[in-house]
Specification:
Layout (H helix, E strand, L loop, with lengths): L1 E5 L9 H15 L3 E8 L4 E5 L2 E7 L2 H9 L2 H9 L4 E5 L6 H12 L3 E6 L5 H6 L7 H12 L3 E4 L5 E2 L2 E5 L21 E7 L8 H11 L7 E7 L5 H13 L6 E5 L3 H10 L2 E3 L15 H9 L3 E3 L12 E3 L9 H10 L4 H6 L6 H12 L3
Parallel strand pairs: 1-2, 1-5, 5-6, 6-7, 7-9, 10-11, 10-13, 11-12, 13-14, 14-15
Antiparallel strand pairs: 2-3, 3-4, 8-9
Helix pairs in contact: 1-13, 3-4
Amino acid sequence: MNVLFLIFHGFDPNNGISKKISYQLDVFKVLGMQTHICFMDEHGTKKRIVDDTVIADYGNGVFSKILKRIEFASISNYAIQNKIDFVYIRSNHNANPFTIRMVKQMKQAGMKVVMEIPTYPYDTEYKAQGISRQIFQDKLFRNQLAKHLDAIVTFSDYDEIFGKRTIRISNGIDFNSVRMKSTVNDTSKELNLIGVAEIHEWHGFDRIVKGLAEYYSIPQNYIVKFHIVGYFFNSEIEQEFKKFIADHHMEDYVILHGKKHGVELDKLFELCDFGIGSLGRHRVGIQAIKTLKNREYAARGIPFIYSETDSDFDQKPYVLKAPADDSPIDINSIISFYQSLSLTPLEIRDSIKDLSWKNQMEKVLKNVFKS
């Protein structure tokens, strides 16, 4: 079977989203499929590339910016000429007459076509960032686009999106790429929390910082520190964060590490004991989601907290659920919860073996080709 994995942005193996896509691609390859990746390269001129082959060069300037958003004939022509059987599209919230035409051409050529929507619903995310205008066209055409798909792949609990049936899967884990924590630290006097993200308001890390401010408002013998790993998507959020830390003299307890990868990130996980998942998804209207971060914490072998609904983890004994509101997180509740646990990192990691990317992508294939 020939598979085309289509994304509408760049593909950088060091980027978190691209890493996830790489894991998905690897599964198709392991299953014996001829797999190809179509992506945009904007170094120099704007080019659409499949693997190492340029299939469209849009040049530079204003016209090139328009072309990359409306010229998809190069993709459908490539798919037809190379006898692609299955097209897996990662949505960029860009439904329009041109993407609809592309999918129609693929379907007319006998291909199976699904579209993954990484986060749903997503309108409120754009609104929260003040960029709702960017999906105005998507709102007009997404139901029409969905009609031509075989299914929509979702990490939510929705049975139907935009009038099209869904294939519900979980964000997966590539266990070979996530190193398990090798030691359990002495936490008799100190507990280290870790939050890893490209930091948006929906991560709700401010709830931990405010909780720490309340915790340290009276003298404490037991030390709790919060290690934040990643960069702030919004400079305004970053400045508010830093101001709150300074105003409350929290510099010793909230440590901003910036972006870390590989060995440096592994060392931080060895230092830390408890993961901080999303604590503000309610701010963008999302109740149920299966985030990659929850799975990465479990694969690392550490307990963690989050506030959304995640059916893969809601009943796990190493998960602390926070209320889905803006209240400061009770730090004493984290301390008590952690001290009540007796699970080893290996036991936590082994509890999610079914969440491998192989298992998740096999669900997609079996669903699409079940007939």
